[in-house]
Design a protein that fits this description.
Layout lengths: L4 H19 L4 E11 L4 E3 L8 E11 L2 H9 L4 E4 H4 L5 H26 L3 E14 L14 E5 L2 E2 L3 H9 L6 E8 L2 E8 L1 E2 L6 E2 L2 E12 L2 E3 L10 H12 L9 E4 L2 E2 L5 E2 L4 H10 L4 E5 L8 H11 L5 E5 L2 H18 L1
Parallel strand pairs: 3-14, 14-17, 17-18
Antiparallel strand pairs: 1-3, 1-4, 2-13, 5-6, 5-12, 6-7, 6-8, 8-9, 10-11, 15-16
Helix pairs in contact: 4-6, 7-8
């Protein structure tokens, strides 16, 4: 085949256009259904029990928009286009990912506490200072404190958790100065920071967001291998998988179980974002059961959205409302009883 100069120019132009459409980064993020990951690949309890069925966490796929996936998202259901600043809460990508990984670690800690206590196994919580996850612009901490810093003391007093530090600072007055002991990159620093008014009326602070740094000691030992998955929304499913590996009884009952929901150390399940996308991902995985935060039955709850989404995509899976780890455990135990009675 002979190629003319004109055809070569046209081909080159088309290639450049396609390249730009597929690689040019727009100031938006596209969020869409992700994957349902088998937790036996992530959770490893020493001498843990195996299961006939499976428990899965479920993710949302998020990436910066190009013109092509921006247009695709406009046409596809359960795809959201979010302005960059809104998608990352004003954080850089690096800071946002760091924040998400802190949230993931906290969810794993909470899941361990809930599951080990429910299984009557040994668990000890050891508070060990607080981590900074964000420093606000134009506030006194800017330039003195960095995201990722670990604060171990304030005015010479050891700090065990984020709430203690927040309570201490809010009793101060505008213009007061506090001294922070900070661990950063294997160094110990001391920084004096002024107390200033916050945007919230009649409140003061230094302009940082915090999470408590904890060590969780358990027996038998266990570990998580969640890779680059971030955020707190896998907490409920982590707790169920850890519990199932700790106990003789297999709560899966041979079912493919997916779900979502942030969990605290008291076992309460809290709502998460993007649950419609997680329902779609769970359905593609062939889930039998999907746990969704009930939010005490309020209008527009995660459960309500999940149930509506499942109906719209004609899914056969059972969408189950839960407000706690115990709700999910009770449901699975009841399903086992029904199966045994039927057999």
């Amino acid at each position: 085949m002979r190629f003319t100069k004109k055809s070569l120019i046209i081909a080159a132009v088309l290639f450049i256009v396609f390249f730009m459409l597929s690689t040019y980064k727009m100031p938006y993020y596209v969020n869409k259904p992700g994957l349902a990951d088998d937790l036996t690949d992530i959770v490893n309890v020493e001498d843990g029990h195996s299961a006939k069925g499976s428990l899965h966490l479920v993710t949302i796929s998020s990436g910066q928009a190009t013109p092509i996936n921006y247009l695709t998202a406009k046409l596809m259901p359960h795809h959201d286009i979010v302005p960059m600043k809104e998608a990352r809460n004003g954080m850089s990508d690096e800071l946002y990912m760091q924040h998400q990984m802190f949230m993931m670690e906290n969810s794993q800690h909470a899941a361990m506490v809930v599951a080990y206590e429910a299984a009557d196994k040994e668990v000890e919580i050891i508070p060990d200072g607080v981590h900074v996850i964000q420093v606000e612009d134009d506030m006194p901490a800017e330039g003195k404190v960095k995201a990722g810093d670990k604060i171990t003391a304030i005015d010479g007093e050891k700090i065990k958790d984020a709430e203690s530090l927040t309570d201490y600072v809010k009793e101060k007055q505008e213009g007061d100065v506090i001294e922070l002991d900070i661990e950063r990159d294997d160094e110990t620093l001391q920084e004096k920071v002024d107390v200033a008014p916050l945007e919230e009326k009649d409140k003061v602070g230094i302009g940082i967001r915090l999470v408590t740094d904890e060590e969780i000691e358990v027996d038998p030992d266990m570990s998580f291998d969640s890779g680059k998955i971030g955020g707190p929304s896998a907490g409920l499913m982590f707790s169920l998988e850890v519990y199932n590996q700790l106990t003789d009884e297999d709560i899966t009952n041979g079912k493919n179980i997916v779900g979502t929901g942030e969990i605290d150390q008291e076992g309460n399940v809290h709502p998460i974002g993007g649950i419609d996308k997680k329902v779609v991902a769970a359905d593609k995985e062939g889930a039998d059961i999907f746990f969704a935060p009930y939010e005490d039955g309020k209008e527009g709850s995660n459960y309500e959205v999940a149930k509506e989404t499942a109906d719209n995509i004609h899914s056969d899976m059972d969408v189950v409302p839960v407000d706690s780890f115990q709700d999910a455990l009770d449901y699975l135990t009841e399903q086992e009883t029904i199966t045994e009675a039927a057999s």
